[in-house]
TrEMBL record:
<feature type="transmembrane region" description="Helical">
    <location>
        <begin position="6"/>
        <end position="28"/>
    </location>
</feature>
<dbReference type="InterPro" id="IPR058304">
    <property type="entry name" value="DUF7991"/>
</dbReference>
<feature type="transmembrane region" description="Helical">
    <location>
        <begin position="40"/>
        <end position="62"/>
    </location>
</feature>
<keyword id="KW-0812">Transmembrane</keyword>
<keyword id="KW-1133">Transmembrane helix</keyword>
<dbReference type="Pfam" id="PF25953">
    <property type="entry name" value="DUF7991"/>
</dbReference>
<feature type="domain" description="DUF7991">
    <location>
        <begin position="1"/>
        <end position="103"/>
    </location>
</feature>
<protein>
    <recommendedName>
        <fullName>DUF7991 domain-containing protein</fullName>
    </recommendedName>
</protein>
<keyword id="KW-0472">Membrane</keyword>
<feature type="transmembrane region" description="Helical">
    <location>
        <begin position="68"/>
        <end position="90"/>
    </location>
</feature>
Amino acid sequence: MVSAVDIAGLLVIVGLNTAIAALATRFFRVRLNTQWGSALYAVVLTPVPLVGTTILLGSILGPNLGSASTVLAITVLVPLAIGIAFDFFWMPAPDDVSVPDNRRQRT
């Protein structure tokens, strides 16, 4: 039987992984000038820290989900999809955001 502590731990892991996925996707969108490059990097490189946080926090907070494929699906793939969707569909494009120029002029 699943306890409330197990559910809370799973929600912490999923929430943290979603935030990491959204921030990594935004980082790739800002740094890369191509449209497909940022999406490719987000899908290929972002799961690496997600698996790392799942291993670290899963040993402390995570419940027994039965199999490794279930753990990867719930704690890596779902947050990756939500984080990428959050950045691509809800956040404005990096080109649409005006940023003030704070560089000092040297004389």
